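For the sake of clarity, the format in which proteins appear in this thesis is described at this point. The fold follows as a row of integers, each naming the local backbone shape at the matching residue. One such record is shown here in full, so that the layout can be seen directly:
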Amino acid sequence: MSSRARQRWHMARKAINLSSRNRKLLLRSLSHVILDVPDAAEDENQVPSFNINPKLLADMVNGKSLEFLNREGRVEKLTTTLESNLSIGISGDEDDLLKRKRHFGSNTYKRLPPKNFLFFVLEALKRMTSIVLLVCALISLGFGIYEHGLKHGWFDGVTNIVAVLFVVVVSATSSFGFSKRLQQLSYERTVFKVVVVRGGSHREVPAFEVVVGDVVSLQVGDQLPADGLLFKGFCLKVEEFVLTGESNTVEVTVRDHPFLLSGSKVIDGYGSMLVTSVGMNTGWGSMMSAMSREPDDHTPLQVQFHSLASRIGKVGLVVAMIVFLVLFFNSGETKLLDMFKTIAIFINSAIAVVELAIPEGLPLAVTLTLSNFVQQMKKENVMTRKLSACERMGEVATICTNKTGTLTVNEMKVVEFWPGRESVSYDDDGSIARKALELLNEGAILNTSSFVRGLISESDPEICSSPTEKQIIAWAVSENCTRISEIKRNCEVICVEAFDSEKKRSGVLIRKREKKEIHTHWKGAPELILVMCSHFYDKNGEVKFMTEGDRKQLEDIITGMATRGRRCIAFAHKRVREDSGQVCSNLQENELTLLGFLGLDNQCREGVREAVKLCEAAGVKVIMVTGDHVHTAIAVAKQCGILNPQEDQYDGVVVDGAKFRSYSERERMEKINGIKVIARSSPDDKRLLVKSMKQRHSPMALVGHGVLDASALHEADIGIAKGIHGSEVAKESSDMIILDDSFLSVVNSVRRGRSVYNNIGKFIQFQLTVNVAAFVLNFIAAVSFGQVPLSAIQLLWVNVIVDTLGALALAREPPSDDLMLSRPPVNQSELLMDSSSTLMWTNLAAEVLYQVIALLTLLFKGTSVFGLTENVTHTLLFNTFVLCQVFNLVNVRVMDKKKIFEGLKKSKMFLVLFMITILVQVILVEVINKVAGTEKLDWKQWITCISLAAGSWVVGLVVKWTHEKTT
């Protein structure tokens, strides 16, 4: 590098650290720095890089320095410097992408490293119970060595330490696995795709693969993946709220304000931008890196059960202290050493009471259930963005959904064409006047924000747009033999008014290059376009004045198509005069000439009718909100089963959007229960619907896709965005994303949401049965005999069964169809209080009573009745207690069914964990009995244990039979 170039380089780096005012002054003398070419590469083996400073580019866009951009030759010169092309983009080959990433960086930001397994091990060791148990184990180790020497005295203490560490590792493994899933969920939240032009073709790539020099196509609802400069666009408006904190919209223009910042949202218009900065060189990347942290997405149920476990633990601690004091004062020890040994034993007994009293498995069960929900729903085309949505879906009482692409298929087909008052079929369209058809084709192809992906194929182009616009363009190309490239070459777009769901129309102002004519084209909802028209083209291409009779006849045509379930799109046109060579930038909205109507057919998705019926059986109301004509909405709602096909009158059931908005708040609250369809709706209607449902405390899920749906999605109990045709703004505001846009996926998520409640309810019964039975048993034994009948290892094994294996087995239970045959729970508290929980509490009380009676009988009478030693009796007690829990696990799997083995073959995880538990129990009793503190049992004693444990099945069947008779 020459000395002069090196000097300018250092001055440029110095400019980066100056204030914005001083930077401008310095940059005036450095306008050519970023284009300076070095004399030679310092390293002969180094790949030549771009002759541009990435930092200065970033400062130019972040500072929105139009002066600096003008000095550098604007976008065109920067494009050349970046070795790109505004028409065909970059080459996009691997070497080119690698070179750009080396020089400008990748489009990623720094994240905090994920927590490793050791972190969760240390967290588990910090728990009070783990610390106390380890201390007691160390005390036991010390006394054992003191009494029996190192050779024989280490065994009990080390065994206890290993057992505690085993439980710690099991707990840490569960937490580590869930943390990894949360990290993946956090990553999926930030991943979105954008359309770039590479090698002359449009490609959809993940945002993190965008590089400097890429040409990115921007549509309404897109999130900007990087910083850049607008070089082509119409009516482009962005919202920079995530960067500035202000919700004001910013109008971006090619000439006066071309700067686009990463993270902004496109809320109107469309265009193309040249990427100038990516990743950590953008304000968005720096901000996201600073905000990067471990996801902390606790759901209401997790918070509730953490609180419940904490409260029960405090009660258990008080009881444990009472047990310790009773044992201590009844011990009668006077020697100091014996007293310390006795205190250690008493502490172990007290800790055993606490350990079995605390339902530590409840939060873990919720965590595992939610984790399973996320995994299974991903397989069923639903991506969960917020964990709380998993359980809230189980509470949903209303699903508010749009029509196109959700209830109906994503593909439309033009089946009717009306030029004026006459219908034209495909076999006689040659009779239509060429001039009218030309104008219609221009309106179809130019009055749109769509684009052709890949290399243009005139006969069969791949069009990227909404299903409606895609089919209109395809119709113009295939049926009218229209060439897209020819129309775009002959016409120049001057001004655009983009379509949105509120205006329900779009317009474009064009100049025909050869004829030197200016034309305005409109398309949209037929009743809105018709109001703007004073003339119409007939089939022969003649322009006729629209009389009241003609208008009435055209309105009847619109109604007829709507009644047949067609989506009707109207096209209108007007030639605009130039005044003194000046063209008005505003689109004319009156005295237009109607070109005709297109009727598009959109069939219902397969299985939608059955899904709607399933929702009705589940007590879930389905409301269809659509922008279509009232008669179209009624026809489709009948096909989907939302409306009764036998009825003709739908007063109060089908409401026009304008009428819905005109209701007072009181009227809306009175009528909301009866509404099933809202036609010609606007985004305001969805917000009002959400607000009304919230006031009625009726949990609802809202399906949306557009930019203007974002606020309603955010306010809804569960906002669901469409994955295929949903905007990035809508996805960002949602709790869930249906990847296939299908209503069936929404219903599946409701079923899964109910299974969250159902599986947690099962685990509550299982957990509390073990906790209460063990608590009563150990408390009575500690007070009566001065020690608990179960050793530390046995207690820890019971905790593993309850807190880990039980949670894993029940959390992954697949949802049954019976879940959709009852009303949804209203809130989290109903998990413990609704009618089905009456059966749960009854069964829990009966199981606890049976287990306590059976186990206390063994404890007090086992030695005398069976003629056994105390150690064998305690083994018999331990074995029966564990098997009771194993048998009860099968019992609670189907809480409300008498056929307890129903569907067991489908629950593979349950069967595996069931067999593992029994196998480990046999090993503890028969193989490593010295470690476990047990004695080997003969086959008669095993039959006794199994028979007593199987009694839990009998108790469960009796409770279920009694509940069925009484209800």
